[in-house]
Amino acid sequence: MKLKPWRELAIPHEDVLKGTFQQAEFAADISKVHQGTATPEYQDAELFFQRTYITEGMRLLLDSVVKRLAGLGGDPVVQLQTAFGGGKTHTLLAVYHLAEGKKATSKLQGVSKILTDAGIVEMPKAKVAVLDGVELLDLASKPRVYGSTKVKTIWGELAWQLGGAEAFAKLKEADADGTAPGKGILADILSSAAPCIVLMDELVRYVSQFEEGKVLSGGTYDTQISFIQSLTEAMKAVPNAILLASLPFSDREAGSQQGVKALKALEHYFGRVQALWKPVATEEAFEIVRRRLFADVSDRLAADDVCRAYADFYAANSGDFPAETLEAAYLERLRQAYPIHPEVFDRLYDDWSSLDNFQRTRGVLKFMAKVIHRLWTSGNNDLMIQPGSLPLFDSDTRNEAINYLQQGWDPVLERDIDGERAATTELDNAKPLFGSIHACRRIARSIFLGSAPDAGIVGGAKHHRGLDLGRLMLGCAQPGQVLGHYKDGVRALVDRLQYINSANNRYWFDTRPNLRREMEERKRRYDLREDVYPFIKDKLRFAPGDFGGVHIFTPSADVPDDHQLRLVVLPPEASFSRSGQSTAIEAAQAIVKHRGEQFRQRQNRLIFLASDADTISRLKDQITSVLAWKSIVDDVKEGRLNLDVHQSKLASHSYDVAAEAIGRMIRETYKWLLAPSQEASPGTGIGDIQWDHHLISPAAVNRTEEIQKVLKEHELLITEWAPVHLEKMLRTWFWKDDAQAVSALDVWQKTCCYLYLPRLKDEHTLRAAINVGVDARDFFGIAYGQEESRYKGFHFDEATTAIFDEALLLVEPKAASEFAAKLAQEKADRDAKAKGEIKDKEVPAGGRSGGSSGDGGDGSSGGGDGGTPSPLPSKPPAAKKTVFFGNVELDPVKAKLQFSEISEEVLMLFTSKPGVKVTIKVEIHAETQPGFDESTQRAVLENTRVLKFINRDFD
Q1: What angle do CA 54, 60, 61 make, to 5 degrees?
Q2: In this model, does residue 56 exceed pLDDT 90?
Q3: For 23, what's the count of Cα atoms within 13 Å in the CB-facing half-sphere?
């Protein structure tokens, strides 16, 4: 359901629409009505009651009046005494029109019910005397002439108005002498004119001009007081006569010292017989103002939908609004006040009415008439007119507001609150979330309405300065809007405006600049390169992680050109933007290509972190604010700056808040990760440097881990490498027909140099891939040297741990397979040859020797002996060798390679046989004539400790 704005449902009266109303039109003047010269809305009884809301106080008063005039009781004397602008004169006018009877009571809106409730069928027509103290001022010294009759005193004027010459004749002598008539004469005059009403307005103004001891033609001060005493007593004697008198509410309204004296005296005599009149309540003021400023609401159902939407909005966000908004009665208040929000009335009646010259009803009418006219002409589409809607950018509205305030509010409104040059307008324009709802301007207007009357002090019924956040939200937010945007706006205002103050979650404006002006002036002292950049650099802290070094705002000449992976944080002026040209790319490319004046060799070892072009300026401003607030706090501590307690606390709080935001803002600013790369393929050449850019989450606790995570996710940094990728790279860029084996160290070094090759974390990543790949036949073999067509320390399709040094070769798999086959054949030949030599050395198992005796025959000897031959005696078996020992001296420079050869050619012959126990001892002896420095000693001792040397020491 789409809610309709107020302008579609409540149309202002024509004079409000056109802006043709005059200040005087809001001032009810009973004398002009009595003389027949008032404006139609006051002169015409029917029109007057159409635009008049009969309040509870007015209803009770009219009830007493009609009963009194009908002789059915009622109070003889009623004193109307409320604050300035409380509706006293307006009430006198209602009584005047009712009693005068020029229009039938049926045509007077709301009057018929009063008569019915009082039990009166027909309202008696009464004579009305109007004694307006302001209009009668000159009567004190200048008699009035009615035909042949000259009237000198106020009692003479009363008699003339009630009964003409006949009534005046009854007190002619008292009028001529300036002496007060007795209550009998006055009672006689009232009885003759009854039913009658005497309306007295601004009586104190008239009486106060009679100074003590001074005699005027209109009498003396004492005779005026005596007259009032006699008149109030006479009223009691006439059952269908009534006196209504308005008196000022306070000594200030009474004016001079003489006025105060007159007020006290009149209060005394009225107090003896008077009935007090109930003033206008705030809720009743809703209808008073609405009737005077607006025609009837055209669509009550649509208006009710708006009011319900507000009530539901407050209920759904109960923790963000005052508790009163959750009560069912608040929905009724919204309906009564529509299209003006009740908060506007609450602030005007509770806060502004405490001002000396602000009239409770008339002042509200004048101010709101200007507000509504400007809102109408500017096309305002708010759902209701809230404090945040006030068009304080309009000169008429602004002047009407500050007319009641102390001097000094012009620059506050101009600079901080509303208008084209106001800081609030700048803040709204700078941030779309603010600008879409005019958040900053609405907040500032609400704070102004709720705090300007206090002018920096506790005033009225308030016990605290300013508005709390809940009431501030009440003045700004409309249904459907995000409260968080307003809360962000409040923080922005506190951080920016010069006349706003805050403490204990309350906010107010003052005519005295807050510390912000001092802070803003100090901000200008700070230089970006000398102060701001070092501050950012100090706050940019990173754990090393996979990086061999983190270089913050480091010149290219100071970024090492080595094999370690390095993170380079670009300075603030080198910012990145996805749209348009980025200075970050230019700065990073310069570092990639050069190290100072020299060409950089290992270009593939650099990763860059850059600031965001859209937020870097806000970060710089925030840092200068922190520095400025810190200097203020330091100056206060050192006694160089004298502030009161509140300002000192405010300075400390502002510094804490600004400093707390720095960490978050730096993370939000330095969020672009830049990594260089190149496209290339054999035979087609190498392309230009390309830049991958990725966002780093500002919420990450460990920034280094987050950077590494992003790099790994996008394969910009390889920490674990499959041998298939290594084999593919070797086949593409390294193995050739005439070079079937390449140096592993050369491969590593080239990956560090060329941007079209993978970026490895370190050499261990390459070695791990080699260790995995050599265990299969699909990728490569390894060797530790090559002589002619033979590989030294060759391994292929077997588990081994590669020793990563300058001797390590990576052999193309086909060549490795062929060489492995050749080695297998050679081994087979050796095995076959070894077996043949063993056979040649074997001895026969037995033999024969003969001998015979006798003379012939078949060789048998009749008398000789025979037997089997004996075996040859065997050689005793040789004893088996059970222990091997050996020692060798290694070249210190080639020790790594030589030890590898020893391991492969000797140790493996032992370790490959089960049950062989091998002990290896390494003895190192080093000496130098100059002696070893401390760093060398420390490093050696630490490394040997880690490597678990049994004996280790220096002499």
Answers
A1: 90
A2: no
A3: 6
* Residue 297 β-bridge partners: 10
Quick check: helix, strand or coil at residue 309?
helix
CA distance 813 to 791: 13
**CA dihedral (201, 202, 204, 206) positive or negative:** negative
What would the pLDDT profile of 859-901 be if each residue is shown by its tens digit? 333 334 444 444 444 445 556 678 888 888 888 877 777 787 7
Higher per-residue confidence, 515 vs 192: 192
Distance of alpha carbon 342 from alpha carbon 384, whole angstroms: 10
Quote the mean pLDDT of the chain: 86
Pairing of the two strands 241-246 and 77-80: parallel
Task: Report d(CA 870, CA 213) in Å as an integer.
Answer: 180
Residue 228's alpha-carbon distances to 75, 88, 256, 675, in angstroms, are: 16, 19, 20, 96
How far apart CA 915 and CA 704 sit, in angstroms, is 49
In degrees and rounded to multiples of 5, residue 738 shows phi and psi of -100, 5
What pLDDT, on a 0 to 100 scale, did the predictor assign at position 252? 63
| DSSP for residue 3 | P
Taking every pair of Cα atoms in the chain, the longest distance, rounded to a whole number of angstroms, is 219
CA angle (136, 140, 142) in 5-degree steps? 90
CA contacts within 13 A on the Cβ side of 625: 26
Determine which helix (DSSP H) or strand (DSSP E) holds 441, and give its type and residue range: helix 439-451
Helices 723-733 and 763-773, axial angle in degrees (round to 10) = 100
> Which pLDDT belongs to residue 141?
86
User: How many residues are listed for the chain in this entry?
Assistant: 955
The pLDDT of 464-481, averaged and rounded, is 92
CA–CA gap between residue 636 and residue 519 (Å, rounded): 13
> CA-CA distances (angstroms) from residue 146 to 151, 176, 392, 444?
8, 15, 51, 59
Q: Please check whether residue 655 is in contact with residue 633, taking contact to mean a CB–CB distance below 8 angstroms.
A: yes
Angle at 413 between CA 407 and CA 414, to 5 degrees: 110
Q: What is the pLDDT of residues 797-839, one digit of tens each?
A: 998 888 888 899 999 999 999 999 998 898 888 888 888 766 6
φ and ψ at 216, to 5 degrees? -120, 170
Counting Cα atoms < 13 Å in the Cβ hemisphere of 851 gives: 7
Q: What pTM was computed for the model?
A: 0.54
Record the tokens describing residue 325, joined without a space: 């908004």
